[in-house]
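INTERNAL AUDIT FORM
Audit reference: QA-55
Scope: verify that the stored structure record matches its stored sequence.
Auditor: D.O.
Record contents follow.
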Amino acid sequence: MPLPEDFARESLYAPEAWFVQDATLFPEEQRLEATCDTTRLGPLVDAQRVWPGHDHHFPGAVAIQITGTLGQLYAVYMLDLRPTKGWIGFGTHIRDARFRKIGEIGPPVRCHARLESCRDFRGTLFTTFAFRFEQHGEEIYRSRQTAAWKQGSPD
């Protein structure tokens, strides 16, 4: 399903930096899934220089940015940590990141995020997610990542 209409107002990034076009939330399973259209990755792919054995491909920087988008989608719609309520978040740790296979440009990438933990430490919420990205049914990226969320004053 398309991203929620109010995500443009709730996101910490502009839409051109989300890199996913849809999301399905599974609150009972503490996870979500989204799709990345690899033909809409813009400057990072356009800037890749093609050499023998080095075709245009799904950039690692895009994978990391997508994890931030997925984490924020989860935080906003499942934990109610909305920037419009003063909540902001930052990635703090990338653990066990593995690029299993080079992702192609053309076929979509299916992106999975599952909340592993959410804990409050002195008013800061720390979330840890497991991420897995697949293309053609094969894993191309996986990681565990932590983000910190703190509430300030909404503007």
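Auditor finding: record pair retrieved intact. The chain has a mean pLDDT of 96.
Action required: none
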